[in-house]
């Protein structure tokens, strides 16, 4: 029996070291050399070098002076990131959307869907440009800035990928807004 057990234990130990230690270290090393910014979380820093967030994960912005992101089912906590899993007929979903629409409503215009529905992960850092432009009047009024200036910021921060729709990163847009207000 020991004759059969020894090779099994040796194989388990060897494979544990290879797949649990060596492989992750090699992949991490390659990522650090080839893609250091992405391997370290795609962190966004301000002019003083302070970390403001990640370009890949949404964070909560409150107050009328900021562009608001999509709602998050997990309240922007990365540990509990997920969709709400509420069906379209669920009264709780309808109540949450109505509440979010009321808080985002500007001048009687319909609120863009992206401002009242969560993304699949609950941490989507981007908005469609239309959802960002919808917020321009509120932000311009709160910051006493011309609406045209705020609109230009949205247009300057709109990313148009080769494939897929145009998007605006809310963190980058709010950082540009903060710079413009100075």
Number of structural units classed as domains: 2
Strand order of the largest sheet: 3-5-4
Q: If helices are DSSP runs of H or I spanning 4 or more residues, what is the number of helices?
A: 7
Shape: elongated
Low-confidence stretches: none
Helix content range: 40-55%
Give, in order, the helices and strands: HHEEHEHHHEEH
Q: How many beta-strand segments?
A: 5
N- to C-terminal separation? 77 Å
Strand portion = 5-15%
Mean pLDDT: 87
Round the Cα radius of gyration to an integer and report it. Answer: 23 Å
Largest sheet: 3 strands, antiparallel
Write a brief caption for the model.
The chain is mainly α and 182 residues long. Helices cover 48% and strands 8% of the residues. It is a single-pass membrane protein.
Report on this model:
It is a single chain. The protein has helices at residues 2-34, 36-39, 91-104, 129-134, 136-143, 147-156, 170-181; strands at residues 43-45, 51-54, 126-127, 158-159, 167-169. Strands 3-5-4 form a three-stranded antiparallel sheet. The protein starts with a helix and ends with a helix. The protein has 182 residues and is mostly helical. The protein has two domains: 8-37; 41-181, no CATH class. The model has no long low-confidence stretch (mean pLDDT 87). It contains seven helices and five strands. Strand 1 (43-45) and strand 2 form a beta hairpin. Helix 5 (136-143) packs across helix 6.
């Amino acid at each position: 029996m020991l004759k059969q057990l020894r090779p099994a234990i040796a194989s388990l130990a060897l494979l544990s070291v290879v797949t649990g230690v060596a492989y992750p270290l090699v992949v991490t090393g390659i990522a650090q050399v080839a893609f250091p910014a992405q391997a370290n979380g795609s962190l966004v820093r301000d002019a003083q070098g302070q970390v403001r967030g990640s370009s890949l994960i949404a964070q909560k912005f409150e107050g009328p002076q900021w562009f608001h992101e999509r709602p998050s089912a997990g309240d922007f906590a990365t540990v509990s990131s997920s969709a709400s899993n509420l069906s379209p007929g669920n009264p709780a979903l309808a109540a949450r959307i109505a509440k979010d629409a009321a808080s985002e409503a500007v001048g009687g215009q319909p609120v863009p869907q992206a401002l009242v529905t969560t993304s699949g992960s609950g941490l989507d850092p981007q908005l469609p440009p239309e959802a960002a432009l919808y917020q321009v009047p509120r932000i311009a009024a709160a910051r006493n800035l011309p609406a045209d200036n705020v609109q230009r910021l949205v247009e300057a921060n709109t990313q148009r990928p080769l494939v897929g729709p145009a998007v605006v990163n809310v963190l980058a847009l709010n950082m540009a807004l903060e710079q413009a207000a100075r």
